Amino acid sequence: MVRLNERKNEIISYANVCMLYNELRNARFGVLPSYNEIMWNTYMNPYEYYSYGPEITFISYDELYEISQLVQEQEINEWYRNTISNYQVVDSIEEEKIPCIT
Hints:
Layout: H1 2-25, E1 28-31, E2 55-58, H2 61-68, H3 73-86
Parallel strand pairs: 1-2
């Protein structure tokens, strides 16, 4: 019975990876041409993501600003509260660098 449960868990894990892969194949990420100090510890090599399928587009700061103006502050606050309640937050994050959080 234990072996059957192990196999079932492997199948579920594989199915989850397949679903994620399909999502990534249809995803589009906008990446800034240079990295901001606040984001340094989240650095990733954008070219490694091509192998997973997402489209990666380098966007300008002006384009980022225009897009960010479309996001409502309430939506940001809800996302932030959901993130900190569901994931471990390291002590090195300085909340004063996130001025929109209320």
